[in-house]
């Protein structure tokens, strides 16, 4: 590691999409590209280096609008990156998400054989993401992305996913989304939980110290790896009708139904956390970004009488709860963008439409961040002393999953939770710094 490794974050070289929270509301489009001609792919990298906004500019040329780019392992190979450099990437990234399916719980209906093609195939080389506050600004961002593709006959768009957010910021199950965002040292971007100490930059950007005090393994040469990061893309289909059916079947009143939904999630649908309002929803609190994530668990709710230990948000981020392991070593940046039409309010029959979330997870340690959380916190309960139980919302359930709601004098135990979320595809990507994009463009191999 060079002496420059201890310098402040080089924001002008880090992609804006790595560190900056998305605007609210937003519209987004994911494009998947295949590189058929190496020289055309390198020219694309050169053009994108002038299109992608840096984290050093709070506002891109089109306002709160930006384009991000990531490459799969197959994409780096298609560009002709030398083998020695390819071998220096994280081994999970080199294997790819399809090879990691068993560890991630992508089995049964979620197994790669059922994925939406070309996700998870060797044809997936480049992932472009355009994000904007509305469809008009999104069209501007997509225009800049298309300009980078003009007259490049050796690069093809092979897949597209349009996403959106409601003004309420609700995801398809009806819960406010995009609430939790960690504070990162040196980024100048505050976290959403004032009780959480900022995390070391090396947890999210390569080339800087992480929570272990060292430097995450970085792809070589340094110009390629520094200021880059790993990103996980997941297309997750949500069975909204099945979720509503389950809630209705296990509730005797609308009030009990909403409380049960909150217990499964750990928040009311408005975004208000059970930790701050355990008995009823508080939409004003849920909509307040200064308060809706301002809580911990250890003081006042260590046993989970308020927020069940097995609830989704407590599994995904246990905060200061007593769990096996060090929570700060498994923090990630999470971003979900909804796709597909809404299922009308009150409808409990599936209409056959594809709806869900495009999820992105950002971090420098694929193994101890995304894969650990997915395998140990979402799809197992051992770290909480809950045995083989899975996340009631996002877990890889098979119809035999259970969920316990602590209460006096007798806990309530729900049985037979089905799988509410099905993986439709995904990719492991590497988000290079802007200098790295130019280095890729200048390759001579």
UniProtKB/TrEMBL annotation:
Any Pfam family matching the protein: DyP_N
Protein origin, superkingdom: Bacteria
The protein's required cofactors: heme b
GO molecular function, one term: heme binding
Classification via InterPro entries: Dimeric_a/b-barrel, DyP_N, Dyp_peroxidase
Residue stretches making up the DyP dimeric alpha+beta barrel domain: 66-144
UniProt keywords, alphabetically: Iron, Metal-binding, Oxidoreductase, Peroxidase
GO cellular component: cytosol
PANTHER family, per the entry: BLR4509 PROTEIN, DEFERROCHELATASE/PEROXIDASE
Protein name per the record: Peroxidase
Native species: Hyalangium minutum
């Amino acid at each position: 590691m060079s002496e420059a490794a201890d310098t402040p974050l080089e924001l002008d070289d880090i992609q804006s999409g790595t560190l900056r929270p998305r605007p609210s509301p937003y519209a987004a489009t994911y494009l998947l590209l295949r590189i058929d001609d190496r020289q055309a792919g390198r020219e694309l990298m050169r053009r994108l280096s002038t299109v992608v906004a840096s984290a050093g500019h709070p506002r891109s040329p089109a306002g709160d609008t930006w384009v991000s780019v990531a490459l799969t392992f197959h994409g780096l190979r298609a560009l002709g990156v030398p083998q020695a450099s390819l071998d220096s990437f994280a081994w999970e990234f080199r294997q790819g998400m399809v090879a990691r399916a068993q560890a991630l719980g992508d089995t049964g209906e979620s197994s790669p054989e059922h994925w939406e093609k070309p996700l998870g195939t060797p044809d997936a080389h480049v992932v472009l993401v355009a994000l904007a506050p509305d469809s008009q600004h999104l069209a501007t961002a997509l225009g800049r992305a298309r300009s980078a593709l003009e007259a490049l006959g050796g690069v093809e768009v092979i897949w597209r996913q349009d996403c959106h957010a409601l003004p309420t910021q609700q995801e398809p199950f009806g819960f406010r989304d995009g609430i939790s965002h960690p504070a990162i040292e040196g980024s100048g971007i505050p976290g959403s939980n004032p009780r959480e100490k900022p995390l070391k930059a090396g947890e999210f950007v390569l080339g800087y110290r992480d929570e272990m005090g060292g430097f995450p393994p970085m792809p070589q040469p340094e110009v390629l790896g520094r200021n880059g990061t790993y990103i996980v893309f997941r297309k997750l289909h949500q069975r909204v009708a099945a979720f509503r059916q389950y809630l209705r079947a296990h509730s005797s009143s609308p009030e009990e139904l909403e409380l049960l939904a909150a217990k499964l999630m750990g928040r009311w649908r408005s975004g208000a956390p059970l930790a701050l309002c355990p008995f009823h929803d508080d939409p004003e609190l849920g909509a307040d970004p200064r308060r809706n994530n301002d809580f911990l668990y250890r003081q006042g709710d260590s046993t989970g009488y308020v927020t069940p230990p097995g609830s989704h948000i407590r599994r995904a981020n246990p905060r200061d709860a007593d769990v096996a392991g060090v929570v700060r070593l498994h923090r990630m940046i999470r971003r979900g963008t909804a796709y597909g039409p809404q299922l009308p309010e009150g409808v409990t029959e599936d209409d056959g439409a594809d709806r869900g979330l495009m999820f992105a997870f950002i971090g420098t340690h694929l193994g101890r961040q995304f894969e650990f959380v997915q395998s140990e916190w979402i799809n197992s309960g051992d770290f909480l002393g809950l045995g083989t139980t899975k996340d009631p919302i996002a877990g890889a359930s098979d119809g035999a999953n259970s969920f316990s709601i602590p209460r006096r004098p007798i806990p309530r135990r729900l049985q037979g939770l089905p799988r509410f979320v099905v993986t439709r595809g995904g990719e492991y990507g590497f988000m290079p710094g802007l200098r790295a994009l130019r280095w890729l463009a200048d390759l001579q191999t």
